[in-house]
Amino acid sequence: MKQKQNFIKPPIVLAIVCACCCGLLAVVNSITKEKIAAAEAASIQTSLQALPNAGSFTQVPDFQPADNEKAAATAVYVDENQQTAILVTANGYNKGGLQVVIGLDTEGAITGITFVSVTETPGLGTKVQTNPELLTDSLIGLSDAAAVEQVDGITGATYSSNGMKAAVTCAMDTFAQNKEAILQ
């Protein structure tokens, strides 16, 4: 009889502990969900305003994202100067490790790149953000994907560099597919 209790009691106790932990996680999630969303929205607005000659951006409600293997457009914004900003999440070394806002002029040329978040390897992958002269500055002014691919990546940060280039290409493609809706 005692052996049966030794086999039954631990799984029951473990199930109760797991249920309590799940309940606590659900409570914490409901408390922090709105604060996290507000902080992310504020970070996106800060990135939008950091673009050169940024005006007051409004979100384009319906757009067709031009996702590729490494990047996905998640939002499109336009200001009163007809500057477009596309929010792109790209895979570097980490899946979704680069969240960037890419500014484009009315012709589809890159006007600026700002970072919402970078969760790449510190000291290596984060160089796409901390050392703009190594990659992001070279992408400014480009207007086609072939030119983006010709830009040299950062030594030691190949995945992050490729993710950054994929993000720029995704923004260009998204702009091209939605140009009429954006520039109305």
What does this molecule look like?
A hairpin with a 7-residue loop joins strand 3 and strand 4 (98-104). This protein has 5 helices and 5 strands. It has 184 residues and is an alpha+beta fold. The chain has helices spanning 2-49, 127-130, 136-139, 145-150, 158-182; strands at residues 58-59, 71-78, 84-90, 98-104, 110-118.
> What summary fits the major beta sheet?
5 strands, antiparallel
What structural class do the secondary elements suggest? alpha+beta
Instruction: Give the tally of β-strands.
Output: 5
**Helix and strand run:** HEEEEEHHHH
Count every helix, treating DSSP H or I runs of 4 or more residues as helices: 5
- Give the spatial strand order of the biggest sheet: 1-2-3-4-5
Helicity level: 40-55%
Low-confidence residue ranges = none
Instruction: Return the average pLDDT rounded to an integer.
Output: 89
SSE layout and pairings?
Blueprint: H1 2-49, E1 58-59, E2 71-78, E3 84-90, E4 98-104, E5 110-118, H2 127-130, H3 136-139, H4 145-150, H5 158-182
Antiparallel strand pairs: 1-2, 2-3, 3-4, 4-5
Key terms:
alpha+beta, 184 residues, five-stranded antiparallel β-sheet
Task: Describe the structure concisely.
The protein has helices at 2-49, 127-130, 136-139, 145-150, 158-182; strands spanning 58-59, 71-78, 84-90, 98-104, 110-118. It has 184 residues and is an alpha+beta fold.
